[in-house]
Amino acid sequence: MSGPADKTRLLRALVTRLRDELASLESSQRSAQQGAVHPETRQEDPKDTRAIEAGYLARGLAERAETLRHACEVLGALELRDFAEDTPIASSALVTLEGDSQARPMRVFLLPIADGKAIVVEGREVRPVSPAPPLGRALLGRTAGDPIEVRTPAGIRTWTIAAVE
């Protein structure tokens, strides 16, 4: 998998997944809102907090839904760039990383907003990453052939940037 068409497919797959999550989340939010005002959750004594808890849940789900809506908008409007081997890595770069003995090889899609959950397109796994986590920060501005080190909970991992698309 390589080239702009592949990045377009990856981006579409990610946005589709986010939209599916959003639809599920909105359904859960509606249920929580209905539960918050349902007669069964009416306070029966001063220590009964069922309606309050349902309200908090609905509010949390609404906030997460807004985050997903925003991500869909940003990613839907993202202009995908082509990268040459000597072009510094930036948003929309598809990066192939070769790992050392401690770090497994992987492909990373650097995006302005990403959840880090792998996308599988045509049998190949790609991990969307934003510039915020250590891996995203380590990639920014680098080029093919550069080594990167990333501190992870399991220790420091080292990769070499094998390719940038």
Structural description of this entry:
This protein is an alpha+beta fold and 165 residues long. It has 2 domains: 4-76; 94-164, Transcription elongation factor, GreA/GreB, C-terminal domain (Chitinase A, domain 3). 41% of the residues lie in helices and 22% in strands. The chain has helices at 4-37, 50-76, 134-139, and strands spanning 94-99, 106-110, 119-121, 124-129, 147-152, 155-164. The protein has a 6-stranded mixed beta sheet. α1 runs antiparallel to α2 (50-76). The termini are close together. The model has no long low-confidence stretch (mean pLDDT 87).
What's the helix and strand layout?
Blueprint: H1 4-37, H2 50-76, E1 94-99, E2 106-110, E3 119-121, E4 124-129, H3 134-139, E5 147-152, E6 155-164
Parallel strand pairs: 2-4
Antiparallel strand pairs: 1-2, 1-6, 3-4, 5-6
Short description:
This protein is of the alpha+beta class.
Q: What order do the SSEs take from the amino end to the carboxyl end, as H and E?
A: HHEEEEHEE
Helix-strand makeup class = alpha+beta
Biggest sheet layout: 6 strands, mixed
Mean pLDDT: 87
Roughly how many Å is the radius of gyration?
Answer: 21 Å
Largest sheet: spatial strand order: 3-4-2-1-6-5
Overall form: elongated
Number of structural domains = 2
Low-confidence stretches: none
Number of helices: 3
**Percent range of helical residues:** 40-55%
Q: Separation of termini?
A: 10 Å
**What proportion of the residues form beta strands (DSSP E)?**
15-25%
